[in-house]
Design brief:
The protein is of the alpha/beta class. It contains eleven helices and 17 strands.
Length: 428
Amino acid sequence: MDKISSLPDDILSHILSFLPTKYAVATCVLSTRWRYVWASVPILDFDARLHGDCYSVSNINANKSEIAFQHFVSRVILLHDKRIQKFRLIYDCLCQYTPVPTWLRVAISENMQELELDICLSIRHEFFDLPKKFFTSSSLVVLKLSRIPFNIPSFVHFPSLKTLELKRISSLDESCVENLLSGCHVLEELVIEEITRMNPKTLYLSIKTLRTFIFSYKFVVDTMVDLPYKFFINAPNLKHFHVKGCISDVFVVNTFTSLDEAHVDLRQTPVSAENYTVCCHRIFKLFQGISNAKFISFSGEVVQLLCAASDQSLPAFSNLEQLTFGISFDFAWKRMLAEFIICSPHLKELTLNNKQGFLNYMDELSKFATRPLPENLRSDLKQILIEELYGSFMPEQIVYLVEHVNILKRLKINCRCPTTLRSQIGLA
């Protein structure tokens, strides 16, 4: 017997737990010693993409491949000893009949700690009825749901759940999400990702234990319809705040006193020029809530919107050490950047890029940019990183920073920056 095969079953099961279940089960052919080791692995990880050409339209055996996958999963669950701690399923169901509800009823155990489901049904608007015991699991710590349309009962109780991810589930409205969150009393990480907007939404989040909030709207390039989302967030212990959405989205937050990092990436949306003032006011209010962060990142569209403000003042960013600033070829980003530097006495690193897009009506907004630039920024800024600059970016725009920051020690320009810019500021 080889050295690995002589190891105890618990150790062999732990080793196999790092493999997808397809490969863990395949070890049964190695020898009689390995024949049933896979059945005690506490993790079941099924990914239909690993089982033949299930999703190939040109493959005449695609239906057979999917049926074979269904039989494989059913047999593994049937023969497993049922002490499942983690269950993961990635499956695009093309058949009219899906055995997924049956799998879940059998697989979900009292000891399950992690559940990850990424499921797409061939029949639109069909909903899963997840087992009722699932919504009152006392052991579940991590729950990740993607694409799967499911019904949420009136009573939800996850006393141990710390991580919740809801991705690309168009069937969930705000009442369903709030009902789901109402049963998560120790939640620490919340991730919401969407790829389409059917209606405006308003979501209220009041979670004292929350440490990470991530909202991502993937198809932000869709500028045909404006369907703003509104988030009212009360999370006093939040550490990480990441939002990617539309410029018209609303984030009403209490001041995050423990915040470490904030990423605000808001993109183009069909907002008229006269409504930019309202959007700008909302963003300044958001700044009040994230002003304690040590790292902040803004998209170029956010910066352009701020440049149009003539009657707003930035809060003090007393803890800010790193700032990533989206810039563009427009009229006043230097003034806005200077104001950020002045309001951030402990800022050490600054990163500039212009990889984002542009807001409409910028010519109309440019009339607001009338305040002069300060001549001495009096900053502790030690490093400036310039990345992903394109087009006719003018070198004097960088020279201003180099000349007016007191103790700059390092200026770095990456390879995507135009050669002319490098040479004109003496860095070629």
